[in-house]
Amino acid sequence: MSAILQRFHQVANDALVKISAHCLPGAKIALVIYTPGKPEEDIILKDQGLDDNEVVSSLRRRGLSIDGDNAYKHDLCDAIVGALAMGAQNNNSPPPDHWGQRFWDIGREERAACEELVAALKLTRENLRACQATIHLCGGFDPAYVNDAQAAMKVADAALAKATR
Asked: What is the Cα–Cα distance from 37 to 71, expressed in whole angstroms?
């Protein structure tokens, strides 16, 4: 650490000690200094026992928006999307009691619901095909029904092809 940076840390620490003498009992102090676009220059000084989650909660209470753009939120959202995808694949379950389990479960449940719908659509499509075969063999049915049923089977085939890739 350079002498200038070391001196800065000492002065800032001394100032925080003086400020803390005037705070309510149990209050914690954090000092964050950042240079936009230069995260390598960030300086964070904080009390012993400071809870980082409480700092974020304090900032939220004072107007920090979830809509802001920052790397932490991008990483969090990427983790959520990953948990949803892993759940849908029934793969790589989070450790017990991990916060991502909730999203993994959602992915798993959505995939199970999709598989159930695919099975129902396959069954319905097969029954429609059997009806079409019977109509074709017996003759005498309204051609509009046959045409509509053929169109419905094409829609079902397209949906099944997309769902089972």
From this structure: 12
Contact 108, 87 (CB under 8 A): yes
Q: Between 51 and 161, where is the model more confident?
A: 51
- In the chain, domain spans: 3-64, 112-163
Distance CA 97, CA 89 (A): 20
pLDDT in tens, 33-85: 888 989 888 888 888 889 999 998 898 888 888 887 888 889 999 999 999 99
CA dihedral for 155, 158, 162, 165, sign (positive or negative): positive
Summarize the confidence of residues 96-121 as an average pLDDT.
93
Q: What is the DSSP string of 99-111?
A: TTHHHHHHHHHHH
DSSP letter string, 54-88:
HHHHHHHHTT--TTS--HHHHHHHHHHHHHHHHHH
